[in-house]
Amino acid sequence: MYPQRANLPEALANRREKLSKLVDFPVILWSGSPLSRNFRANVYPFRASSHFLYFAGWGLENAAICLEAGKLELFIDAPLPSSTLWHGETPTPSAIAETIGADAVYPLSELSSKAAGAATIPVQDISTYQQQCDILGRFLPPADKLQGIDLVLAEAIVKLRSHHDAAALAEIKQAANCSIEAHLAGIRASRTSTTEAEVRAAMERVILAQQMTCAYNSIVTTHGEILHSDRYHHSLQPGDLLLADVGAENSMGWASDITRTFPVSGKFSPTQREIYQIVLAAHDDCIAKIRPGVEYRDLHLLAGEVITQGLVDLGILKGKVANLLARDAHALFFPHGVGHLLGLDVHDMEDLGDLVGYQAGRTRSDRFGLCYLRLDRPLETGMVVTIEPGLYQVPAILNDPDKRAKYQDAVNWERLAQFSDVRGIRIEDDVLVTNIGAEVLTAKLPTTIEAMEGNG
Amino acid sequence: MYPQRANLPEALANRREKLSKLVDFPVILWSGSPLSRNFRANVYPFRASSHFLYFAGWGLENAAICLEAGKLELFIDAPLPSSTLWHGETPTPSAIAETIGADAVYPLSELSSKAAGAATIPVQDISTYQQQCDILGRFLPPADKLQGIDLVLAEAIVKLRSHHDAAALAEIKQAANCSIEAHLAGIRASRTSTTEAEVRAAMERVILAQQMTCAYNSIVTTHGEILHSDRYHHSLQPGDLLLADVGAENSMGWASDITRTFPVSGKFSPTQREIYQIVLAAHDDCIAKIRPGVEYRDLHLLAGEVITQGLVDLGILKGKVANLLARDAHALFFPHGVGHLLGLDVHDMEDLGDLVGYQAGRTRSDRFGLCYLRLDRPLETGMVVTIEPGLYQVPAILNDPDKRAKYQDAVNWERLAQFSDVRGIRIEDDVLVTNIGAEVLTAKLPTTIEAMEGNG
């Protein structure tokens, strides 16, 4: 029940100290409240707001913290006596305050006394959002359209949360290690499973067994070309590749995010092997380039280049690589960004919009090959990013009459048809930017052909 | 993706036909919209409103149906072309309409044309709730405080949903069968697991593998006395009993609800065995009494009586059974109701409040032994109820000074102390009321001592 972390108060104090150097107004962050599923008492598993978690270190329900000049004040009500029957003994407010190193603790009704001049970030659940507006006495726009002191706060939080401290890295590594085990279980389970659902179940079992949860809805599909497939109903056929994009979130709320693609039969076909090698080369080349100062956008373009070169070598794309890239021909097969920031959120701080991923002065491109890029900043020490190139045959793209016309000369459609047993391949790892380069936090999970065939 | 049900349109038409005999105004039911977890795109798995599911038969997101005089009109927008990249090809509105047997299908923007004089049931998610108020042009109270035509509609829906048709029963049985397998897996896993979390994971794996979800947050705990424990962090010790209250919800949204309690070592202690036999006797005696016309409240009282007699026989309670029952002494150890209705919701229609469980003219008792009773109606053919007596040592009750004083003479506290290795035992099955008595839908999962020790 209590977060089992030795230096939690120190880590949180350190974050508050850094925040106090960036903002000179009080900050109130709300944790949020549980959301009901089909009736009020049947709630979804609660997940506190990530901004609250970052500074409070504990996923408390219906709580708020006030941060000012390095001080932490906690606002939470004592559990009702009647709740003991249903939920057992739960920690008292003062025990919680001590655990997280709060300077003081008050009932929630006291929160309004802190509202004057305070900034906040709006949470996702509407009832808490309405509470935020009520207590602050002003309308709050959505979290990706903040203004005034809220925007200043958001910018400060982006600065802090983009660079992970040692406490945060330990959490991310714990989550990543669990995800690695889940993927190994998934590869094993795929050999004997008859449906996608069975493989997903074997993977999520590992996550649940370690008292973690999924950081996002798992993608476990033989139709890797459906980028965010959230159904698991297809049966596994001997020639299928299975794409598994599954990541654990640990008990402190920190995420991991791994994708592997492997043959359910334990053996790639020659065509699958060719495409897999291209994606793997893009993945490896991007990771090899990671170091402080490198533009993440350049990694994305590098992935596009490796993929384009690979497809030219296979005879699927025709022409010069540079020309094909300039025309975004690679995006026919790689229609998403090469990755994103990772932290408490799997797309870290995505609630704040492109303020997070796009350096001041930069905006999203509307180019086919760049519009889905979630991160366009120079890499800095302490960032954790995913690297996740992929190669897909998406019918909605490849059968689109406009695209067919535009890229008629660039694609050898007959040659492409020979690769019909490759619907989608993605390989994704979580990478810490270090002073000297990169540390792949998910490196213990192999990516090689041999490993994906179960012989690694 | 499509519901694979042969006679879905007929089953739904039958439900509409029955509804049309109970209400003479149009009815609009909303499905609801997905709820975000930590950022907008990271949503909890969507669950449509149960009232919508009952008449629409498909858990569509952001949809509504209008029911009038037996007709079904569907309101849903076509998927955006850009959604194909992320979610693949999804069914068109007209394909959905055909699958569920809708008479017509319109975009959501047309829904306001149906609003005049229409009744509804408010959904759980606030953004859809606000849409409901906007479109109907009136304030909607919470679903358990309805008035006017909305209350008439709620009463009609309670009539329909309390008596399951053949289509509904087939769904509940499918969910129940999956839960049975999950519990068998849990009993097996407990022998080799070191934590509650591992057993929970083994059980939920079975549910996920069958493309189902949990109907509620699983309770898997060595602290059965925490009635709604939702944490899984305790390690399993050789002398522990593990209480597992886990139920699958099938792909059509229908629930099941099973509890078993078993020794993690595979062997009950003599004291655990004594208490288990009492709970099992209460469970069996209640089920044996089930037939149309029997008051559910009398089953609850019967469970209390069997438990009281058992505790008197063990020397834990002192005095005459009738006197002890009159004083609610049994509620010291059995502080909840004996069960509830089961259907699309695990506590079926609980969103509508005591309108569901309490016959007109009856209200909740404030007696210690009755206040948690969720159902106080005569049983009728077609109802599905749970029977779930339990026996617990809840510190918050047994150490409460008022209770200790009140029941000082009724309890042999020294004798009770000999049973300290029994923190909580519950045995729960799902039972259909039939013309001639009862059908235990979860009967394939044994309840005997031998089975719980793994020798059944």
TrEMBL record, chains A, B:
Alphabetical UniProt keywords: Aminopeptidase, Hydrolase, Manganese, Metal-binding, Protease
Cofactor: Mn(2+)
Class of enzymatic activity (EC top level): hydrolase
Gene Ontology MF terms in the entry: manganese ion binding; metalloaminopeptidase activity
SUPFAM superfamilies assigned to the protein according to its UniProt record, in alphabetical order: Creatinase/aminopeptidase (SSF55920), Creatinase/prolidase N-terminal domain (SSF53092)
Official protein name in the record: Xaa-Pro aminopeptidase
Gene3D superfamilies, per database record: Creatinase/methionine aminopeptidase superfamily, Creatinase/prolidase N-terminal domain
Pfam families cross-referenced by the UniProt entry: AMP_N (PF05195), Peptidase_M24 (PF00557)
Enzyme Commission number(s) from the entry: 3.4.11.9
Matches recorded under SMART domains: AMP_N
Family membership: Belongs to the peptidase M24B family.
One term under GO cellular component: cytosol
Substrates-to-products reaction catalysed: Release of any N-terminal amino acid, including proline, that is linked to proline, even from a dipeptide or tripeptide
Domain Aminopeptidase P N-terminal intervals: 8-134
InterPro entries on file: Aminopep_P_N, Creatin/AminoP/Spt16_N, Creatinase/aminopeptidase-like, Pept_M24, Peptidase_M24B_aminopep-P_CS, X-Pro_dipept-like
One BP annotation, GO: proteolysis
